[in-house]
Each structure stands twice: as C-alpha cells, then as structure tokens.
Automatic annotation (TrEMBL), chain A:
Pfam families with a match to the protein in the record: CBS, cNMP_binding, DUF294, DUF294_C
Signal sequence interval, chain numbering: none
Protein name: DUF294 nucleotidyltransferase-like domain-containing protein
Organism: Modicisalibacter luteus
Record-linked PROSITE patterns: CBS, CNMP_BINDING_3
Metal-binding listed as a keyword: no
Domain CBS: residue ranges: 155-233, 239-295
Swiss-Prot/TrEMBL keywords: CBS domain
UniProt cross-references to CDD domains, sorted A to Z: CAP_ED, CBS_pair_CAP-ED_NT_Pol-beta-like_DUF294_assoc, NT_GlnE_GlnD_like
Every Cyclic nucleotide-binding domain range: 17-115
Gene3D superfamilies linked: CBS-domain (3.10.580.10), Jelly Rolls (2.60.120.10)
Automatic annotation (TrEMBL), chain B:
Signal peptide: none
Organism: Modicisalibacter luteus
Pfam families: RNase_T
Coiled coil regions, renumbered to chain: none
Protein's name in the database: 3'-5' exonuclease
Length: 637, 240
C-alpha cells in the first residue's frame, strides 16, 4: 500500500466476510475504498439508481427497504449492502436510508468482482441465501461423527494379549498385573492369508496370529477351580471360543445387542482384524444410562403413573446428552417423539389394565409434532381417539372417556402439558368412530374455510400410537388422495401458513421486526419452526405425500416440480438450522437449571448464529412469498 | 464576525492575491501553483475539489520548530478518496530533540532517511493546486508551510483554507446559544478534532498520524456541512 490505511484495514478485518480474506486481498480492498458521511435521515440509495460500489458501514445504522416501503433489513457497523445490485448488474431495488449518522466505505465494483473471483468465502457470503447455511449445517454434521456413536469411543485401553501356550497361572498373573478382568488369547497361525481366518492378524514383526478366544475372571472360577484343574494347564484348554467380536466402527447400540443376544459381558473389538480392545457391558451401561434407549425400556417397565412421572427428568438428561453427542434435529426430534410415544403407549396400557379390555377396537392417535416425529423437549400433548365404526356412544363412550382422561392426566404428570386448544382425546369431538373422522377430513378438504382450518391444521400431521393402526392409515390415505385435488383447500392452508412471519433478524442487542420494531427476544417455535413446518405441509399435501415428518415431506416434494430448483434444499437447511438453535438453547437452559422454553435472547446468540439465523429467516420469508403465489385462492365458487 | 468577513473579502480577495503571487513568483513550482488559482468564491461547496491536510511538527512555534510529517487526502463533499492520499515524513533542518517526540510520534530513525521538504514540494504543490485545503486549526498549517517555503525558496506560501475547528467554534463557541451556556457557567464544548467528531457520530481513530488526521478532518467537514450547512453553501462564506 502506498499509504497506510490501518484504520480502514483493521476495521474491515474484524467483520465478515472480510475477516477471512488474505492480507493481500484485504490490503487491496482497503487501498481502494472511498468514504462518505450521511446524516441521520438522509437517503443513501434511491430505487432504480445505478450503483458501482459495495457499501460497508463503518459507523452508524442503515435501513434497507423493499419497494413497497416495507423494511427489508436493518444494518449496523461492519454490515454490507448493495451486493445484489452489483452481482446482477441491476439498478437498486432495495432503497436505503441512514437512520443514524453514518460513515460508509465504498468498495468499487472491480474490486468487488476481484474479491468474488479470488475468495470463495467472500463469494459465498455475498450471494443471497447461498449454500452458507448449508455449509454450516453440513459442517456441524461432520464435526460430530458420533451421530451414531461408535464402539471405539468407549475403549480406554489396549487389550491384554496372552499366547495360547501360556499357563493358566501365568495368564492370571498377567491379568492381575494389568488390572483387567479379561484377556485375549492368540496363537501363531500358519496361513493368515486365508480369508476364512476371520480372526487372523499380522503383528508389527510380520508374524501372523489367530485370535482364538477370550479369557475372563469367571473362566478361572468356572473352568479351573470348580472342576479342580491344574494352574499349569495351557490357557488354550480353558478359553471360550470361538470369540464373538465386533468391529470398532460399529455402533454402541450394535455392541449392546450383540452382548444381549449372546449373553456375554465381554466383547473383543477389532479394527479390521486387529484386536484394539475389549468392551465390557458396564462400559455400555455407564454410557447408556442417559440414553433414550435405556429410557424407553425403563418407561415400559413402569407400573404406575407416579413411576412414569419420575422419569421425566431422565428425558431431559437424555436430551442434553444427545445434543452434546452432536445429534441433528431430526434424530433428536425422533428420539423425543419415541419417548413421548412410549409414555403414551404405556399410559394407554395402564389405563386398559385398570378399565378392562376395550368394548370396541380403537386407535390412539398422535397429532402435531409427535406425529411428525419432531417433538421438542417442551411439548404439549395433542392426541385423539379413532374408534371402530361399531362404537355406540351410549354404551361405549364411558369407557373411552375414562381412558382418554387417564392418559391425558398421565401425560400431563409426565411433563406433556394439556393442549390449550383442547385437541385431546378427552374432548368428545376428537373421540369419534372412524366414519366420523373421515367426514371431518372430507369437510375440511372439500369445504375449506380458512378460519375453521386455522384450528385444524394440526390434524394434518397424524400418526397411530397404539391400537388399530389401520384406522389412522385410512385417514392418512384419505388426506393424501383428496388434498392434492382441492385447490381451494390448498389455498386456504397456504393462507394460514402465512399468518406467522419471521422477524428480520438481529440488530445490535435486539430482534428486528419488519415493522421496524425492536424486541428483546424471539420465540423460535412460533416465528421460525412452526411457519416453516406449515409451509412444508402445504406443499406435501399438494403432492400427495403420505409422509408426516417435515424432512421426509421435503424428500417427497423434491420428486415433484412444486418448488423452484434449489428451494427445497434451502428450506431444509434453514429448518435444520433454526431447529438446532432452539435445541441448543434449550439444552443450555437445562444445563444451567433454567426452565427451557422456545425463546432466545439476542445476547445469547453468537455472531455466527445471528448471521445464519438471519439468513434462515430470509429463506422462510421468501418461501412464504412463493407459497402465496403458488396456491392462489381460486376465484369462482 | 461580520466585520471580520468583510475585511477578508475586501482587503483580501483570495483570487487577486493568488494572481498577484503568480505574477511575482520566482520559483517555477510556486509559480505553477499560484497560477492554478483557487475555486471561485461563489462556488458551492458541493462542487469544490478539496484536500484535507494535516501535519506534525516538532513544536508549536513556526519560527523555532519544523514540520516532520504531512498527510494529504483529496476529497469532495460526496466522496473522500483516501487511496489517492499521500503521506511523507520529512527531515527537519535541525535534528530532532527528545523533547519534541511527544508532539509528533515520529522517531529519529524515520527522519534519517526522509527527504527534505523541498524534495517533495513539487508533488505537494501538485496535490494542492486547484483544491481548497481543509485543516483542523489552519493557523498551524498555514504558519508552518509559509515559513518552510520562505526558508527554502525565499518566498512564502498562503492560500485560502477551510478550518473545521473554526466551523466548530462558530457553532459551539461563538453562537448565542454557546455564549448563553457559558454565561450560565457551563464549560464550553471542546472543539478538538476527536471531540468534534464525537458530536457527529464519527468513529474514534486510535492512531495519531498526519494521514489519519487528514482523513478524520475530511470526514468531519462532510459531517459539518451535512448538519449545519447545505451542499450549495458558497465557499466564500466558509473559508479563512
């Protein structure tokens, strides 16, 4: 640089996307900027104006508007604007105005283009809704290869290896010295090349060996002392074989099943053919105590509502563990839903035990997030009863009303609060025979009234929990077949899906609304996840998908032409990102002994998270705009 | 104020002064500079090419102290062009004394290799030609440049300047409101460069350096015009 513009360079170097530029490129930018001052209230870009520079806010704040006058974005120190016009060689579409006294740096178009060409990061950053969000989600996934935690994670030491010819006493002494409860027994093998020799391996000296078995503490008691054998015997005489083994990259779950199936407590772990450790059942038990699997088993062994209710703190511990292990939102949603279903099923079973066998067949049905396998740690209960068509209210309803009441109270005791909209099997309206349910759905779909549908969109996420699953399947079929044929229904659902708009993003310590209002916190469920789930549902209904899970629905939608190229992926990444932010914040709440909720406060959001959230909200906002356009209300009756 | 301004324009028409100097100048560089003249007095500020100038000196007395560095940043009311700016460390005729270092932050080793002011005069005058020079506290810049040129070329240099400190003083020291507050016993607003910048929401610069301060001065002038004047204000009502 001919002149030292340290002030400029240092400031820009602190903010994305300049923070990751090479020194050379950063110098290039800093030496080419121009500067201008804007008094609060003055216009920066007018609609339709041609611009040749990217704007960087050195100090102050700038509002960017849509042509309609609606606020599009509020930007502060270190933010940039004007990139979209520059990238597309368009006149300005989003006019801007200084809302505080503002000092701007202008980056000339040729420098901007050079940056885009030479720095992928920069190019990613300035491209609207670019794979940035995708990259973040993918990176998160890769950084946590424990999605399925692998066996090797539990190994703490190398196995103790004993030659087959060693005496029993020698083996016992080695195990004593090494303080282990098991050792692997091996012998020199003539033909390690033989592919059948599953347990052959070659050591560092090129000698090939065969693992012939495992020796445990119990073997000394059962196979040496009890039968009165000599301590001088070679261990090969008493070893258990052939050994059951597991590969080090198998899941812990797999290891546990293997032990249970074979009723063994020690399991040699191999990397390819080479023994790398021995897993003990206690390792798994220690690991699994907080896991959802253990929890589900535990739920089914409870014999009272009280016992079940005591497990609700375990649910939270399992949730925190999953988050720490790097599970993604889909895994967590499905685990929490499995747990919720287990509670429900166990409660139904307990109710049946108390009330006797049901007078007619029925299906206990889950609605909303549980049906979608997207349950959160904070969740209401949404459920209903689908009864056999032989149901006669006079004679049978007393039974089902009691069953519903017992299950509902039980769920409330286990932490699933009562549904505020009264969408529960305790409500007689939602405790009806299959034929009536079919009529409900017929009505909703054939004579859609947006207001009426507002309260019933939750019924379009439905799944069987217990009982006659075919009842619910018939309803799912009916929805899948008829919804796509009713443009009026889709339009009504689409209209309702636009009721909740995302915020703009963040500005300094506040949540920015598109009215220009500042809020102290944001309800991520109401403003992000639910509207996203709503709009995915509309597209899924339009394409006749039977899937209930939002990600599975997106897979089905991707098979059609309903969404523009790339849009489905953007929605998927945005939903995953927003869901994970909520999940992480809830896990943090639990760890810090606060009551988890759906609200996040800007001060608890990292700057990286802010940026990605802002982008995710933008994806949602654009997807909503497209939805309204894609499913217009048909004009005539 | 009024009489001061009348004096200024009647006795001292800057254009007449510069034309006369152009005619009399012996040094070809100064002749070229004076011939370029200055923007007409009624030129609106928005059409005036400007040059922010800041210098660091070994002290405050132009008869005893010397210039050690000069920073220049060309700008207009619309744009500041720091990339086209210039910065020089210049070698004072007398060696630096330890006691002067607090004034300027330039070290002995820096000035050792530095050119004399006469070596950069051509470029300096070339940057200044046709532009209205803007400084924060013009008296220092004016006095030091004048005596530095006088010492080297036997003729001094004077030209119209905009002074952001004067503009600030008019607003915050000499206005009726400012006088009223001072009668009420409140301490007057500081008109130092950074304190002035704070009033307009301009960032605090950490490095103190002739180029940074020239940039800071250019930004301050844009802010002052945006807040207290209009883009069409004629420069004769602002210059000194």
């Amino acid at each position: 640089m001919s002149v030292e513009l340290l002030e400029v360079r240092e400031h820009m170097g602190r903010f994305a996307p300049f923070d990751t530029l090479s020194d050379e490129l950063l110098d290039d930018v800093a030496s080419h900027i121009e500067i201008a001052y804007f008094k609060a209230g003055s216009d920066i870009h007018h609609y339709g104006q041609t611009i040749n520079e990217l704007c960087y806010i050195r100090q102050g704040a700038v509002d960017v508007y849509r042509r309609s006058g609606e606020l599009y974005n509020r930007l502060g120190e270190g933010d940039i604007f004007g990139q979209f016009s520059l990238l597309r060689h368009h006149p300005v579409r989003f006019p801007s105005k200084a809302i505080e006294d503002t000092l701007l740096y202008y980056i000339p178009a040729d420098v901007f283009r050079r940056l885009c060409e030479q720095d992928d990061n920069f190019a990613d950053f300035v491209e609207l809704e670019r794979p940035r969000l995708e990259a973040t989600v993918e990176q998160y996934r890769q950084n946590n290869d424990m999605l399925i935690t692998r066996v090797r994670k539990l190994l703490t030491r190398r196995p103790v290896m004993i030659e087959a010819s060693a005496s029993v006493q020698e083996a016992a002494r080695r195990m004593c010295e090494e303080n282990v409860t098991s050792a692997l027994v091996y012998e020199a093998s003539p033909n390690a090349d033989d592919d059948d020799a599953r347990h052959s391996f070659i050591d560092n000296n090129g000698q090939s060996w065969t693992l012939i078995g495992i020796l445990t503490d119990v073997d000394f008691r059962n196979r040496v002392l009890a039968p009165g054998l000599s301590a001088d015997l070679p261990v090969v005489e008493i070893v258990s074989r052939p050994p059951r083994t597991i590969q080090s990259d198998e899941s812990i779950h797999e290891a546990m099943l293997c032990m249970l199936r074979n009723n063994i407590h020690h399991l040699p772990v191999l990397h390819r053919r080479y023994p790398v450790g021995v897993l003990h059942l206690s390792d798994i038990v220690r690991y699994e105590t907080n896991s959802s699997l253990y929890l589900v088993n535990n739920i089914f062994s409870q014999t009272s509502i009280k016992g079940l209710a005591q497990l609700s703190s375990d649910v939270r511990a399992a949730f925190v563990r999953m988050v720490a292990d790097g599970a993604d939102s889909r895994m967590i949603g499905s685990a929490l839903s499995s747990i919720g279903r287990s509670f429900t099923r166990r409660l139904v079973e307990l109710a049946e035990e108390a009330l006797g066998p049901p007078p007619v067949p029925y299906c206990f049905m889950a609605l909303g997030s549980m049906a979608r396998n997207e349950q959160a740690i904070v969740s209401d209960q949404d459920n209903a009863l689908v009864l056999d068509n032989r149901f006669d209210a006079e004679r049978h309803d007393e039974y089902f009303a009691a069953l519903a009441q017992q299950v509902s109270d039980g769920l409330a005791a286990c932490g699933y609060s009562y549904c505020k909209g009264n969408i529960m099997a305790t409500n007689p309206r939602w405790r009806q025979p299959l034929a009536v349910w079919k009529r409900y759905f017929d009505d909703w779909i054939a004579r859609p009234d947006p207001q009426a549908l507002l309260d019933s969109s939750i019924f379009f996420d439905l799944d069987a929990v217990h009982g006659e699953e075919t009842f619910v399947e018939q309803l799912q079929d009916l929805v899948a077949e008829q919804a796509s044929q009713s443009p009026k229904f889709l339009a009504a659902m689409a209209r309702n899906a636009l009721n909740r708009k995302p915020p703009l993003g963040f500005f300094r310590g506040f949540v920015m609304e598109n009215t220009g209002e500042h809020k102290n916190s944001i309800n991520l469920k109401r403003r992000g996840i639910a509207p996203m789930v709503d709009l995915i549902r509309v597209h899924a209904l339009a394409c006749g998908s039977r899937a209930q899970n939002s990600f599975a629905r997106l897979d089905d939608i991707a098979q059609t032409q309903l969404l523009p190229e790339g849009s489905g992926d953007r929605i998927r990444y945005a939903l995953e990102f927003i869901s994970m932010v909520r999940i992480r914040h809830q896990a943090l709440d639990i760890e810090e002994e606060r009551e988890p909720d759906n609200n996040i406060e800007p001060e608890n959001v990292s700057s990286e998270e802010r940026h990605n959230l802002k982008e995710a909200f933008l994806v949602l906002s654009n997807a909503q705009k497209f939805l309204g356009f894609r499913y217009p209300m048909p004009r005539s009756r | 104020m009024l009489s001061f301004r009348l004096d200024n324009s009647q006795q001292y028409s800057w254009q007449e002064y510069l034309a006369e100097r152009a005619a009399r100048a012996r040094d070809p560089r100064l002749k070229r500079y004076f011939s370029a003249g200055c923007p007409a007095p009624d030129t609106p500020i928005c059409n005036t090419p400007m040059l922010a100038l800041d210098m660091e000196t070994t002290g405050l007395d132009s008869s005893r102290h010397a210039i050690v560095s000069i920073g220049l940043v060309p700008f207009t009311l619309q744009r500041i062009m720091p990339g086209a700016g210039r910065y020089w460390v210049v070698k004072p005729p007398r060696p630096l004394t330890e006691s002067s270092i607090p004034y300027h932050h330039i070290t002995h080793s820096e000035v050792e290799q530095a050119p004399d002011l006469s070596d950069i005069a051509d470029e300096l005058l070339g940057m200044m030609a046709g532009r209205l020079v803007v400084a924060h506290y013009h008296r220092l810049e004016r006095a030091f440049l004048d005596s530095a040129f006088e010492a080297r070329m036997g003729e001094g240099i004077r030209f119209p300047m905009l002074d952001t400190m004067v503009l600030e003083a008019n607003r915050y020291r000499h206005s009726w409101r400012a006088k009223l507050t001072s009668w009420l016993g409140k301490s007057p607003a500081s008109i130092r460069l950074q304190d002035s910048r704070d009033r307009y929401g301009l960032p605090a610069y950490t490095s103190h350096h002739a180029l940074t301060d020239a940039l800071a001065t250019a930004e301050l002038l844009q802010a002052q015009i945006a807040h207290h004047h209009t883009p069409h204000t004629p420069i004769e009502t602002l210059w000194v």
